[in-house]
Write a structure and sequence with these properties.
Blueprint lengths: L3 H5 L1 E7 L2 H9 L8 E4 L8 E4 L1 H4 L9 H7 L4 E3 L3 H16 L4 E6 L2 E6 L5 H16 L3 E6 L2 H8 L7 E3 L5 H6 L11 H9 L5 H4 L4 H8 L2 H8 L16 E12 L2 H21 L7 E9 L4 E5 L7 H15 L3 E10 L4 H11 L5
Parallel strand pairs: 2-4, 7-8
Antiparallel strand pairs: 1-6, 1-7, 2-3, 5-6, 9-12, 10-11, 10-12
Bound molecules: thymidine-5'-triphosphate (TTP) and magnesium ion.
The site of magnesium ion (MG) has 4 residues, from β1.
Length: 359
Amino acid sequence: MGSAESITRQVLHVDCDCFFASVEMRDRPELKSLPLAIGGAKDRRGVISTCNYVARKYGVRSAMPTAHALQLCPDLKLMPGNMEKYRTVSQEVMAILRDYGSQFQQVSIDEAYLELPPFSNGELVARQIREQVEHELGITVSIGIAPNKFLAKVSSDWNKPNGQFMVAPWEVDGFVAALPIRKIPGVGPKSAEKLHNMGIERCEHLREFTLTDLLNQFGKFGKLLFDRSRGVDPRALSVGGDRKSISIERTYPEDLKSEAEIVAALDGLWERFENRVAGAKTQPQHLAPYVKLKYFDFQVMTLANHELACSRESYATLLKSAFAKNGKPVRLVGLGGRLKLQDIDQLAFDFNFNELDAP
Ligand code: TTP
Ligand code: MG
């Protein structure tokens, strides 16, 4: 254990709690005490996208056929879901997170990694993020703090919902030794079964195998198992690789106080944004525009409209509407373009893909 890198890195993995359900409970608090699921109707062979923690007590889970969920929990309140709303809230969460990391990587609609500068107080930063998201957006997130992405991802699940968990560098060895192999991201049901048949339940058992043994048994995936069972994960945050949005922003020395000032700010921002889009090898027609305003009191508002083209005129329209929402003095203006996502099925597909099982 303990390369210089693993001692100094501080990676946060932030994951929203029962994301789609949290947004609905925020907007209709009377749903909080009920078992709630977002998903397709039973008679249309729908599946559950997610459910709140009340419904989880009954065994309801993501990707489960709705018919099965209703057998487990006949009182389940089922809602069809509103992707447009979830995308907007996702953008708002990400806008908050981005400000905390020296690097930032969004990995799905509700989760992201942050790399903190060395010697930051990771636990304190996590607490601040949780407070800010809950206060500004009315939903909760859980956070893992660890020396690498693998351990941060495992840790964000440890005290879910609305919790955080840190694995300090000196705790890595013991923590990983006791970790069930199913907790290693990438180990799905098939590889778990194969590992169990080899007598491997926890990472400490994996360590008894040589790298050659594991490569012979699992191909390239064997190297991942070898590394992860020792708490090793050298992956950097892929900033821009997994890009879901492109944005630029500027904080002004003096707050902007009128619609005219906000629209005039576009002069300085639009060209930078166009260059950023071109630099990311993306076409504007693949982007849905959004704007971000941060007010003098650090409240943040984002406004998106995926029907609009990604043009200067659209940003002027969005900025005017955003400013009109409450007219408070603005300290920061941002322009963004979100890569257009498909539909909920595509999203479910992406999730399955993330959980890719070993050969
Ligand atoms: P997750 O973060 O996997 O789940 P979650 O946020 O609902 O719950 P948890 O508290 O355990 O993190 O997924 C984020 C959102 O993505 C989820 O709210 C709905 C959507 N989703 C699907 O549509 N289909 C799926 O199979 C999964 C897993 C998620
Ligand atoms: Mg989540």
